[in-house]
Fold this protein.
Amino acid sequence: MRALRSAKGVTQKEMAQLLGVSAAYLSALEHGNRGRPGPGLIMQICEYFELIWDQADEVKRLALLSHPRVTVDTSGLSSMATELANELAGSIGQLDDPTIAWILDEIRAQKEHKSQGPTH
C-alpha cells in the first residue's frame, strides 16, 4: 500500500482522511503492526487507487496475509513440523529478504505440486 500511495504522490495523512481512518492506523497497517483490515476498508483502498481485477485481488490477498501475530498449530503433525515452526518463530527476525523469498518459493512450489495431484 505504501508503494501505491507513494506512486500516487499522496501522504498518509491525506489518504487517511479520505478513507476515514487515522494516519496512525494507516501507518500501522503499512508497517505490518496492525491486524488485517476489514473488507470494507480493503474495498475503499482498491477504489481509492482505482485498482481493477488482478491488482485488487492482489491487495485482498495481501490483506488476508497481513496479520502480524501468527499462531501455528502443529498438533497432530510430525515432530519435524513442530521443529520447523519453532525454528521459524525463533529466527524470522534474522532472515534477510532473499532467504524469506526462497522459503516462500519452496512452500508455494510444494503446494502447487500437491494441488496438481498424481500424474500418470
Observations:
- The chain has a mean pLDDT of 85.
- The two ends are 43 Å apart (CA to CA).
- The domain at 2-64 is CATH 1.10.260.40 (434 Repressor (Amino-terminal Domain)).
